[in-house]
Design brief:
- This protein has helices at about 15-25, 60-65, 80-90, and strands at about 5-10, 30-40, 45-55, 70-75.
- By secondary structure, it is of the alpha+beta class.
- The chain has a single domain, classed as ACT domain (Alpha-Beta Plaits), CATH 3.30.70.260.
- The protein has a four-stranded antiparallel β-sheet, covered by helices on one side.
- β2 and β3 form a beta hairpin.
- The protein is globular, with a radius of gyration of 13 Å.
- The relative contact order is 0.29.
Length: about 90
């Protein structure tokens, strides 16, 4: 089984931010296995959770995501994340 991790991005909430984040992964042909997003803190920011397979270039992808203008924080959860655990309950 392929090892997976979750990146939790805190981003400025405005139109196009999801496109910028997904575009980063798309341009580098890095597959995203799952995406969840929702506004937080009254809607000024959002959290984006990305479920990713762990590959050699993941550390570089994390660094590049952190450099995106709209990204204000990146956390990596190698043990998974409850967002995707809860979502998995709905597809069983």
């Amino acid at each position: 089984m392929t090892k997976q991790t979750v990146l939790e991005l805190t981003v400025k909430n405005h139109p196009g931010v999801m496109s910028h984040v997904c575009g980063l992964f798309s341009r580098r042909a890095y597959n995203v296995e799952g995406i969840a997003c929702m506004p937080v803190n009254g809607g000024g920011t959002s959290k984006i959770w990305l479920l990713l397979n762990v590959e050699k270039r993941l550390d570089q992808m994390v660094k590049q995501a952190d450099k995106l203008e709209d990204v204000t924080g990146v956390e990596r959860h190698d043990g998974g994340h409850e967002v995707f655990d809860k979502m998995a309950e709905f597809v069983r």
